[in-house]
Every structure is written in structure tokens, then in C-alpha cells.
Write the C-alpha cells for this entry.
Amino acid sequence: MDERDALNISREVAKSVLKAVNSIPIGKRGEFYGIGKSGVTKLVDKVAENAALDILKRERLRILSEECGYVGEGDVFVALDPLDGTFNAVRGIPIYSLSLCFSDSENLADAFFGYVFNLCSGDEYYASERAFKNETVITVGGKENLEELNAIVYYPNRPLPFKRIRALGSAALETCFVAEGLFDCFIDIRGMLRIFDVAGGIYILEKAGGIVVDEKGNSLGSKRFELSERLNVVTTNKKLYRKLLELIL
Amino acid sequence: MDERDALNISREVAKSVLKAVNSIPIGKRGEFYGIGKSGVTKLVDKVAENAALDILKRERLRILSEECGYVGEGDVFVALDPLDGTFNAVRGIPIYSLSLCFSDSENLADAFFGYVFNLCSGDEYYASERAFKNETVITVGGKENLEELNAIVYYPNRPLPFKRIRALGSAALETCFVAEGLFDCFIDIRGMLRIFDVAGGIYILEKAGGIVVDEKGNSLGSKRFELSERLNVVTTNKKLYRKLLELIL
């Protein structure tokens, strides 16, 4: 399997998940479905996961997904978040996405393809060697001053000098917003991000020229495709990341 | 002029602003237009304001607007934010709104009608005696525990015990999200909110059963329709606001 196969599969998944999510009225999306591998599963989470797995299970893939853990057999590993931003999707707030990351092993270091699909706008982000949004190459912004930053932060616990701070509710999508330069950084060092939430987005962000590290400045390459894995993520452009790390230490 | 007139006028303004904003491609919205009464005016701000004023100036109204200050003559005062969430509108992030508040004097205390229009979804919020979303009565949520809250906070400067914290970028719309129970509180005590940003939303929120105070627990009734006015806003349901005030003091 190469990145072209991964893109084709991802697009089929996106089509399937989009149709599935939109088939459920907003008022029904939040209904309790059951207890999954990561806690409470809402109806819309399960419907989205089923729609994604319908496509992915046809392939020789080991798929790690939020609600059901590992399924499938194969040499290529996939971290799947069928619906990142369930809170928004349930309330009709139009910020939620699908995220996929393909890797040659259980390690994020061996990832070779990232894919994030904006389920509200239809925008598609992906990266193998370079990062794209809807077929156009994207790159991170180039700001150098903290006071000018449009930042995404979960959650500030002290005053921060940024121009603007947002938390929109879909880490997969927000990391892509940084990748395309709409925002200047993404910081979540609560120790709560799961691998499937951000593997796709941070792969895209790195290929868009960004730096992705933990709060100590370490690479996330050692992170594994496991339900129990937790990540701290600091991402921005190469001029800024040291300043950001100093700020949050 | 009564609240029925205000609703009719507001709806005409919404139609006009929606058409005007959507006529500008996202890539053009952020172009520099000039320096207005509140600082830099972007093209989309000016286009939205012109579209709103085209309607409002036909009426006998004193209109306070972000870009041009006071215009028009009349006994009824209107605080207008033609586009709340410019940052989002310019980037294609689908969270921005139009906000209007009608008052019998320059004081927020004499307001008699609030109107917020979601320019992305078309959802309409308004209140005179009661609060409505798309003709259905809305009321604030009823949570009592801080740990369960879905909170909107600009910006946390210490650890907060809430379940979830968001900052979506349109105060007018976010106060309405609290009014309809999608979120449990809205806190912005940076001293930066302007009267036209939130007058419409907080009027709706109060009529939906919420409490709106400043960070000391004081009513905002003494706030005036003036460009120089700044507000601190803490809003939530009646069971929670004392706990919130204790938390942020």
C-alpha cells in the first residue's frame, strides 16, 4: 500500500462517514448508544465509526478506532477518529471532522499518510511528502512575535500574551487550520489527547512545514497507535516553537 | 416603535447583511478597507455595515455601529454589530453573526428587543418578553455543578474546574448558545467587549432565564450605547452565577 492507495481509501471513508453523519438529525445525534472502549458512545459516534469501518475492513489494515479498539488484519496500521468534535456535531456547531493516519508500524514515527476531512465544509486535508488542502499545497504561517499570534489553546491556565485565543472543539481540524496558516499554533498539554484525535492532523502539520513536539520539546515519534496512549502537543512554525515552549514551561 | 416593528426591521437587516457577506468570496473578505471608529475596518465589515444601515436608516433610529459610530435620528436607539466574528468570516470558519439591540434610551437598562442572526446556519434568535430561536421558546440550562459545565471563557488565566472550555469567536452567537442551553456559561472579563458585541445576545439571554452580571456581580443596566463603553460579562443560570463569581474573583 502506498500513499496513493491511502488517499483513495481515505476519500471513500470520507464519503461514507459524511453520508452517515448527515443521515442523523442533529437532535438525535447525542443519543446514548453504549459503552465503548473509550467510554460513552453516542449514536452519531457509532454510526460514523461503522461507516468508516465498512470501507476500511475491506482492506488489509490494522485499524485502531475510538469506540472499538483494534480491528482487522494487515501490515499497515491506521489510527481512525471517525468523528472528531462529537460535542459540536451533537449541537449543530459546524466544526467537526474525520481523521485518519496510516503507518507502516504501530509507531507514529512510521506514519506515511495523514488525512483530515472537514465534515461541515467538505474541505479535504492530506499529506504524504507535502501537505495539501483541496489539491493545493499548504504551509504554516511565518509569524515570529507572540503578541501577534492567533492561537488555539486547550486550556490556558495562566495569562498568555497572544493576540487571540480559541478552542473550537476539533483537534484534528484545528491542527489543519495551523497547517494552512489560519492559526499560528495549537497547544494542548493537558495529557488528554488520544493518538487517533491528532495523528492525522499533526502528520499534515509537519509536512506543511510545522514543528510538532510535546511540552518538553521532544518529538512525538515514539507515540504508539494504542487506545491508552496520551499526547501533549505543541505545534507551530519553526521560528516560534522555542518561544512557545519557554512560555508554557 | 414596538417589538414587532423591531423584529420586522431586524429580519430585513439580516436578509440584507447575509446577502452582502455572501457576495464576497472568503479570500477577499479580509482586505483592508480603511480606519473606522473602532480601528481597522476590513472589506467584509464595511460591506456588512452598509447593508445593515441601508435598512436601518430608513427608520427613525439612532444607530450605534462599530465602524461609523452614531448615525440617524430618532427616539429609539439601536446597538448594531453587523458582523460579529470577523476573524472567522475572513477565514471561512462558520461561526459569525449579526447582532442588534433596540432601546428606548442610550442605556442598556431601557432595551426592549434583542436580535442575533447566525449568518452561517440562518438560525434566528430574538427576545422581547420571552426568548426565541426560530419561533421556538428557549431557556438556559439548569446545571448546578461546576465540573459538569460546558463553558465559554475569554480567556482562562488560571485552571478552571469546568468539563469543557471553548472560545468560538462570536460573543453575540455564543451568548445565544448559552440562552438555548447548548453551553452553560459565558465569561469574558477582559474589559474588552463593546456594547454592540453583546447587547443583543445578553438581552436574549436574560429573557431566556439567565443572569447577566459583571465580574463583581453587578447588573449591566447602567451600560450605555457608546463606542467607548466596555463590558465585563458573566452569564449563566440562576443556580450557578454565585459559584462562578466566587471562582473568578
Summary: Chain B is about 30% helix and 30% strand. Chain B touches chain A through 25 residues (CB under 8 Å). Residues 152 and 167 of chain B are 6 Å apart (CA to CA). Helices of chain B lie at 3-22, 26-29, 43-56, 86-91, 171-179, 195-207, 241-248.
